[in-house]
Amino acid sequence: MNKEILHIIGAGLAGSEAAWQAANMGVRVTLHEMRPDLSTAAHETDKCAELVCSNSFRSDDAQHNAVGLLHKEMRKMDSIIMREADAHAVPAGGALAVDRDHFSGAISDALQTHPNITIERGEITSLTDQGWEHIIVATGPLTSDALSAEIQRLAEENSLSFFDAIAPIVYLDSVNMDAAWFQSRYDKAGPAGTGKDYLNCAMSKEQYETFIHELIHAEYGDFKDWEKNTPYFEGCMPIEVMASRGIETLRFGPMKPVGLTNPHKSDPPYAVVQLRQDNALGTLYNLVGFQTKMKYAEQTRVFKMIPGLENAEFARLGGMHRNSFINSPKLLDSHLRLKTYPHIRFAGQISGCEGYVESSSIGLLAGRFAAAEILSKDVYPLPPKTTALGSLLNHITDGANKETFQPMNVNFGLFPPPSEEYLRPRQPNGKRKKLKGKDRKKVYTDIACKDLDNWLEGISTDA
After folding, report:
1. Same domain membership, residue 368 and residue 433
2. How far apart are CA 257 and CA 271, in angstroms?
3. What is the pTM of this model?
4. Domain that holds residue 150
5. CA–CA separation, 311 vs 174, rounded Å?
6. What are phi and psi of 84, to 5 degrees?
7. Which of 180, 316, 398, 456 has a beta carbon 3.0–4.6 Å from 308's, enabling a disulfide?
8. Whole-angstrom distance, CA of residue 66 vs CA of residue 437
9. CATH number for the domain that contains residue 256
10. Helix, strand or coil for residue 46?
């Protein structure tokens, strides 16, 4: 009977979601988590699905945004990650952000009390010695050295890695509200917001240029030998690296002033630093996009140059950690199985997707794939490539270039292009009009929702 247990290694977002999905299908699951026996450079607790970077699940717009569409698809598939994210949402404009402690606590409770799930603490260093026949590796970006070596041995492939960075968090009551103000960009309200969900700190041209100079010339922590020559992921670039690319780079990135109006001054802001609520109480705010490897003392000095943060007290300063992933398009089949050892699946960030929701979604699929296999059913059908789930899965298992593979957030560029009939609809005069912007994105999401519903109906009928 032990052979029919699904062993999931790693109780992060992907592992937690995989365990939930498989257990709800009737499969017995053992969820292995090395914390607190062995901690990592970024985790602070032993809870399941702990968020170690941002507290944002990004856009919740399911009609015009690919990640918002992924939210919707996961909700339709009884995702525990999305269920608890919705239950513990905090204001964040058009984004879905959560109270990280309540979120991970609720998921831990749900998994611990599930009759089909057993959580075991301790490091797993081998994937072949125990005789397990069903394994999902969901150890995320901070896989232990021992397990990393084991994965490399089994995959016969050198591991890849990049840096993931953590943004600082400040106490709201230490912010100078005579300089800062609440406003979402373009006053846009999100699923848990009001249109005034971000804390904004404006800079003049002179203040901005001085800030950039100090940012570039600050002191930074030394890289360890294993960190050297490791590429950054473009979606989580350290603030100082962006600043070094040109003085205007940040004004067109995390410090762009568009859509914001400073009520304290008549002149439009030249640049703006945005802070986003980090907990349900609204006492903590993180500096959006301000991931850094700056030394702690330098962070305090440089970030207090931001108007409104002159007397800021930091609940957490920024930092960086290694993020490891495998070359999934080369190593995995379409159902996330390791080609050389097909009883082992990979899910989450280690499989080469990037982002909380993306990692969770691959965990969701891995859990269902493995459960279907254990229950002796036919191979679980793949989600349509026209959906967010299907496009992301296809990218990491087949669609990406094996020679240049890098982690990827879900985006409409991963979807197969709709036909001209959809993207260039015929007008009353008989001519075709090319759809642009939101109208074009809506075509993708409409097709995805229809195809996902048909796919889910087919799965339900088969069951």
Report:
1. no
2. 5
3. 0.80
4. 2-159+326-413
5. 6
6. -80, -25
7. 180
8. 13
9. 2.40.30
10. coil
